[in-house]
Amino acid sequence: MRVVVAEDQLLTRQGIVDLLGSAGVDVVGQAEDADTLLREVGRSQPDVALIDIRMPPTHTDEGLVAARAIRDRHPAIGVLVLSQYVEPTYATRLIQEHPAGLGYLLKERVFDVAILIDALRRVRDGETVIDPTIVARLLGRPRRNSPLADLTEREREVLGLVAEGRSNQAIAARLFITDRTVEAHIKRIFTKFGLVESPDDHRRVLAVLTLLRS
């Protein structure tokens, strides 16, 4: 897997690069600001761009803007965005626009190599990955006339794990149920959300979008 890392803090960026290298990931470019990031992505055509949301010059949403530009210019390249804060609005904005091949993790998870590598692989493969803390906040928001209101508690748990990018096998292990039971829950979620099977749509991603929009 080939990755470009964008982080303006040198020590943090080097720590991420070293961590990825130790896990066998090929870091093909580094950037400390959005302009450099876009140049590096265009030059190296990585599998995934790993981007901190807050970058120079204003340290607000430059990384988010760059992520959008990457998806517009290079739709085959996955994007995994890191944020120091729990900001569901950023996650919602980004994933609603370009759902497939996108991830949003809290920055604190970046030095857990298993979580980071798993997220990078899922994003590379076109899945959507959202940090568990953000998923919990989204599921916990009060709603009226929401599709989520029709879900059982177990279906909400399953949907939350789908939003985190978990496979059916991983969901089964987490909830101590069988793979077949997970499949049944997911099919019922699709039905309740009105998501019909189509070769042009990824229903797991569409289910996550329904969560974000609710």
Explain what you see.
- This protein has 214 residues and is α/β, with parallel strands linked by helices.
- It folds into two domains: 2-130, Response regulator (Rossmann fold), CATH 3.40.50.2300; 142-213, Arc Repressor Mutant, subunit A (Orthogonal Bundle).
- The chain is built from ten helices and six strands; from the N terminus they run βαβαβαβαβαβααααα.
- The chain has helices at residues 10-22, 34-44, 62-73, 88-97, 113-124, 132-140, 153-163, 168-175, 179-193, 203-213, and strands at residues 2-6, 26-31, 48-52, 78-83, 102-106, 128-130.
- Strands 2-1-3-4-5-6 form a six-stranded parallel β-sheet, sandwiched between helices.
- Strand 4, helix 4 (88-97) and strand 5 form a beta-alpha-beta unit.
- Helix 2 (34-44) packs parallel to helix 3 (62-73), helix 7 (153-163) packs across helix 9 and helix 9 packs across helix 10 (203-213).
- The longest helix is centred in the last third of the chain and has 15 residues, at 179-193.
- It is globular.
- The two termini are 34 Å apart.
Please summarize what this structure is.
This protein has ten helices and six strands.
Give me the secondary-structure topology.
Layout: E1 2-6, H1 10-22, E2 26-31, H2 34-44, E3 48-52, H3 62-73, E4 78-83, H4 88-97, E5 102-106, H5 113-124, E6 128-130, H6 132-140, H7 153-163, H8 168-175, H9 179-193, H10 203-213
Parallel strand pairs: 1-2, 1-3, 3-4, 4-5, 5-6
Helix pairs in contact: 2-3, 6-7, 7-9, 7-10, 8-9, 9-10
Q: Can you tell me the CATH architecture of the largest domain?
A: 3-Layer(aba) Sandwich
- Span between N and C termini? 34 Å
How many domains is the backbone divided into? 2
Let me know the average pLDDT: 87
Strand order of the largest sheet: 2-1-3-4-5-6
Proportion of strand residues: 5-15%
Q: N-to-C SSE series? A: EHEHEHEHEHEHHHHH
Task: Please give the number of β-strands.
Answer: 6
- Helical fraction equals 40-55%
In DSSP terms, counting alpha (H) and pi (I) runs of 4 or more, how many helices?
Answer: 10
CATH homolog superfamily of the largest domain: Response regulator
